[in-house]
């Protein structure tokens, strides 16, 4: 099959592209390189540098490439920050997604597989399950849920087959660790390698489940041919307190000769406990997560040490009222 992947230079996109290429598929990738890196893109993939807000350019790609299936991974996934960059958030995560949906309908794509987020659940009883009614509490979660709703309507009205995956706290080598607003383990690795304290919002009693990117590949491939109008949580079952994960990073850094400390910043307005139930993905997609958190963090630490010194991204805030002090620096 010919498969188009948006966000191919990011963590999900590049790993899925590598995996599907090995399965014999043809890959076309689209990315604006605002959050991913060109050296993540597999050499065998045909690559377009393109901003997804450019609907005409997207249509040209679809007309030229005629993809069978689209994986839509492109997004800017900074939940807490999204309140302060509302326009950017909705343009990047909603308008861009609608442009992809339109092109899929116009060019008769067989299926669109969309990467949503567990941010759509908000603060509900954990573990979150797909049967729960979404109740997002930040602009990023609202954006993702609105795209989910549009996909449901596009399936009903235009017959666009789709599947939604809600990955959460996925990490691994090739992740962007140079963004100060997202990817907490990556932020800690970068801080440790620069002999900076590992920063935690509040007391660190928040709970999250962190999952290894490699366990997502086979379930994603199964979605090429199966299950339309379905939603799947995908991630790790084991959840941890944030303070405990920070200590794992601290200990691994010290094992490799780098001493660091943990610094508590002011609390931010966020969902305190967030992790999911994955029974549906296990049953229907044969999903099996065997994430070894300490082993993967050490693997990422070694990988991060080998990376070039990339520029840390700073966003232009649209709103500064109630902006956290640690983002004013």
Folded structure, characterized:
The protein is of the alpha/beta class. It is 35% helix and 16% strand. The strands form 4 sheets. The protein has a 7-stranded parallel β-sheet with strand order 3-2-1-4-5-6-11, with helices on both faces. Helix 7 packs across helix 9 (293-305). The longest helix is centred in the first third of the chain and has 21 residues, at 86-106. The radius of gyration is 19 Å and the shape is globular.
What key phrases describe this protein's structure?
329 residues, 7-stranded parallel β-sheet, 3-stranded mixed β-sheet, 35% helix, globular
Order of helices and strands: EHEEHEHEHEEHEEEHEEHEEHH
What distance lies between the first and last C-alpha atoms, to the nearest angstrom? 47 Å
> How many distinct beta strands?
14
Q: Low-confidence runs (pLDDT<50, min 5 residues)?
A: none
What structural class is derived from the secondary structure elements? alpha/beta
The count of helical stretches stands at 9
**Most strands sheet:** 7 strands, parallel
If you compute it from the alpha carbons, what radius of gyration comes out, rounded to the nearest whole angstrom?
19 Å
Strand % is 15-25%
The backbone outline, from C-alpha atoms, is globular
Q: What is the topology, as strand order, of the major beta sheet? A: 3-2-1-4-5-6-11
Average pLDDT works out at 96
**Share in helix:** 25-40%
């Amino acid at each position: 099959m010919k498969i188009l992947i948006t966000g191919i230079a990011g963590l999900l996109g590049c790993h899925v592209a590598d995996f599907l290429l090995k399965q014999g598929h043809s890959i076309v990738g689209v990315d604006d390189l605002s959050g991913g890196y060109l050296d993540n893109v597999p050499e065998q993939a045909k690559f377009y540098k393109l901003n997804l807000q450019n609907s005409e350019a997207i249509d040209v790609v679809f007309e030229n490439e005629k993809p069978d299936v689209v994986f839509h991974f492109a997004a800017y996934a900074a939940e807490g920050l999204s309140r302060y960059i509302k326009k950017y958030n909705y343009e990047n995560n909603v308008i861009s997604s609608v442009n992809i949906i339109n092109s899929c309908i116009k060019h008769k794509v067989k299926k669109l597989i969309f990467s949503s987020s567990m941010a759509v659940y908000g603060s509900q009883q954990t573990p979150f399950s797909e049967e729960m009614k979404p109740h997002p509490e930040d602009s990023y979660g609202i954006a993702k849920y609105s795209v989910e709703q549009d996909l449901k309507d596009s399936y009903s009205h235009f017959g666009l087959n789709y599947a939604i995956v809600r990955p959460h706290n996925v990490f691994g080598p090739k992740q962007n660790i140079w963004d100060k607003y997202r990817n907490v383990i990556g932020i800690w690795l970068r801080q440790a390698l620069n002999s900076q304290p590992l920063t935690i919002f509040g007391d660190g009693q928040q709970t999250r489940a962190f999952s290894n990117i490699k366990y997502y590949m086979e379930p994603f491939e199964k979605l090429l041919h199966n299950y339309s109008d379905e939603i799947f949580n995908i991630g790790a079952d084991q959840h941890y307190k944030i303070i405990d994960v920070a200590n794992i990073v601290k200990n691994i850094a010290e094992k490799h000769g780098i001493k660091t400390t943990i610094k508590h910043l002011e609390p931010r307005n966020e969902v305190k406990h967030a992790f999911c139930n994955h029974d549906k993905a296990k049953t229907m997609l044969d999903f099996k997560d065997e994430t070894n958190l300490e082993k993967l963090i050490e693997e990422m630490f070694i990988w991060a040490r080998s990376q070039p010194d990339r520029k840390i991204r700073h966003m232009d805030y649209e709103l500064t009222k109630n902006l956290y002090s640690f983002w004013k620096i």
